[in-house]
Amino acid sequence: MDKDKLFWLRLIRSEKVGPITFWQLLHRYGTAELALSALSNLIKQGNHKYRLATEADAERELKAHQKGKFTLLSAEDPSFPQMLRTLPDCPPFMSVYGQLDILNQPTLGIVGARNSSLNGRQFAERLAVDLGKAGWKVASGLARGIDRFAHQGALPYGTIAVIAGGVDIIYPPEHKDLYHAIAKTGAVISEMPLSLFPGAGHFPRRNRLISGLSRGVIIIEAAMKSGSLITARTTLEQGRELFAVPGSPLDPRCRGTNNLIRQGAGLIESAEDVLSMMDGPCVPCLRDEATKPFVQPLDLDWNTLETDVFQDLSPTPVSLDAILERHAVPPQTILTLMLEWELQGRIQRHPGNMVSLMAS
Q1: pLDDT for residue 170
Q2: Alpha carbon distance 241, 228 (integer Å)
Q3: What strands lie across the sheet with 159-162, from one edge to the other?
Q4: I want to staple 112 with a disulfide (CB 3.0 to 4.6 A). Which of 1, 158, 173, 221 is the partner?
């Protein structure tokens, strides 16, 4: 990996830097090296203990990938999924266990309840088989229930498992055999660092990658507060097709999917229903600029914006949402400023998404 990519890896692995902040910092400072230097200076000014990833950290991660026979793809790598490059929160890096060529093949997502019914599991497996025969790859989350059976049905045709922890962490552990079987014909992928055990907050991030990889997502059995509904929301936000399988009104596992249909999701009862609503398993035709790593195309004067936003602050806490509404720039642009000021010791955060100037 060249020096620029090492700086990329250091930046995304630094504390408080997520994918959107990464791209905003890259846009603001021009390179990851300059962004790291700027953040380092801000931390020194604020006398904070926020940790920036070091070159040694990045080198260790690269060596761990090589030792574990995993591939670390940057968003500029030709093998990186094109569908993800169009997202504002495109991961700068993706760890892959398995076959790289599957990442840019036509894909549909299948997700659903962990505590699924026998009928739901059988339907998920049958649907995955039929979609595979029709030329589609299936993406899911390697979870218990619907996810597992979707992967099993798609195994002969290639399937993508998007996981919430490091790509070397098999979770749940009983899916060990499935994990290795997927890698033989498909891929297990993650944006998280190696050896990171999945926590509750990691699964929504995982879910938006399942929908991001897919041209459409099928929800099978989801209660009203199911995590699968997060995937449904990101599917719509990303401009993908959303489908749902209807279920008994007496089964609480089907209330979420039935409600999605009520709100306009495509009702499907077979693979033929899905295929009739899709253009066919062709490689998606993306705009030339969409095949490049996402960087928010902002034509703005950062100094002017910084002055305007700073005038909104005072020692009295103010709603961050109110500040975001006042300025006609993407929210993450202002959140990047807030990160810089927080590192510099100029502002402090309060419960309820409130911020204020630090007392002198």
Answers
A1: 97
A2: 15
A3: 71-74, 93-98, 187-190, 159-162, 137-140, 107-112, 216-220, 241-245, 266-267
A4: 221
pLDDT score of 287 more than 80? no
Query: Which residue bears the tokens 């806490």?
Result: 317
Please give the DSSP secondary-structure letter assigned to residue 70. Answer: -
> Are the C-beta atoms of 295 and 26 separated by less than 8 Å?
yes
pLDDT > 90? residue 247: yes
Whether 76 contacts 99, CB under 8 Å? no
Domains assigned to the chain: 3-68 (no CATH), 95-288 (3.40.50.450), 302-357 (1.10.10.10)
Using DSSP's 3-state secondary structure scheme, residue 73 falls into: strand
Locate 21 and state its tokens: 């902040």
Residue 19 tokens, joined = 């994918």
How many Cα atoms are found within 13 Å in the side-chain-facing hemisphere of 182?
32
Beta strands in 130-260 (DSSP E): 137-140, 159-162, 187-190, 216-220, 241-245
**Matching residue, tokens 């060249």:** 2
CA distance 145 to 75: 31
Number of neighbouring beta carbons within 10 Å of residue 45? 13
Contact 45, 65 (CB under 8 A): no
Pairwise CA distance, residues 344 & 44, whole Å: 7
Position 335 scores a pLDDT of 85
Beta bridge partners of residue 216, listed in sequence order? 108, 241
pTM of the model: 0.87
Q: What six digits make up the tokens of 232? A: 């449904």
Contact call for residues 318 and 355 (beta carbons, < 8 A):
yes
